Known about the structure:
The chain contains 16 helices and 6 strands. It is α/β, with parallel strands linked by helices. It has one domain. It has a 6-stranded mixed β-sheet with strand order 3-2-1-4-5-6, sandwiched between helices. The longest helix is centred in the middle third of the chain and has 18 residues, at 158-175. It is globular. The chain starts with a helix and ends with a helix.
Amino acid sequence: xxxxLAAIFLGLFVLSxxxxxxxxxxxLSDAEFWQMICDFSExxxxxxxxxxxxxxxxxxxxxxxxxxxxxxxxxxxxxGPEQNFTYIAALEPRISFIIDIRRQxxxxxxxxxxxxxxxxxxxxxxxxxxxxxxxxxxxxxSSPEDLFEGYQKAASDRELYERSLQTIIRLLTEQHHxxxxxxxxxxxxxxxxxxxxxxxDLSYSFMAGPRPGRTPTYSELMTETDGQGRNWSYLANxxxxxxxxxxxxxxxxxxxVGDFAGPKAIRAVAQYLEEHEAPxxxxxxxNVERYLFEDNVNWKTFYSNVEALPIDAKxxxxxxxLNARAYSNRRRNAIRSVTLLSSISELLDGIKEGRxxxxxxxxxxSR
Length: 367
């Protein structure tokens, strides 16, 4: 399947020249990073779940096709928590924007930012993330399976949690000088506590249990593969981790609070990218489009916002279809999602021409 997808996308995009975003800055100052978050963001919005973790266990399966069609050095836009890191590690963009309706997601990304900056290896990163003492046998050569098995056995450490939480707050407010509100710091404590309590068993809404149909755990997602035996996760190896660490250190993974159908966030990103002549290579929407199509105005507003983004023939939507009957023949019992790709320009043309008016038609255009 991955070879077929790669061939399709190479065929779609072969006529388009590669445009690397060379005009983008090599780093943002702390002040520029925080100002961008403040200026681009919209008010905190509502979603029905805390969404601590992705609930999509097939998100790696499109990575070979994406890498075949998209060269490093562009722009990535995404939504949600950690799954973005895996796409970023694979696509190697110069800059990334994570746009999510929940302010909690922005704050969770700041926790991740602190964890990346304060950790030299994946083993240290997981120790910081889960507030568990690093097992001595874990090092830079450890596989993802070894890492998560080690931290599964390691006991949570409340004293380490308290120290690390204070370290996060100090790094963000005293070193980076981000102006977090009291509510923000309280939310950071609540989010970080979920990682502390659940550890490697953290799941979409908090704790994974043995119930049928449960969402995957952190351990399970980070040890997934692309269906061909390769793990592309951001914790698959030290190189992937260090790529993210470098981008975070240069303030080039920017979490924005924004509604996809809102008036500001996507358009602010679009204006910034237009000014820097930097087209979007990949836009990961998860399954947000399904919710947008529940309102006859929201989906139209979203694609109008997308139309403001600089794109080229290679610009690609990455979307998830969760528990979709239409794709049941493509799923094993253990798979609860399907990840699909589509050309952004082709989709926008379909909307303009009236060929796409329903969510099902959107998925039919995907591959």
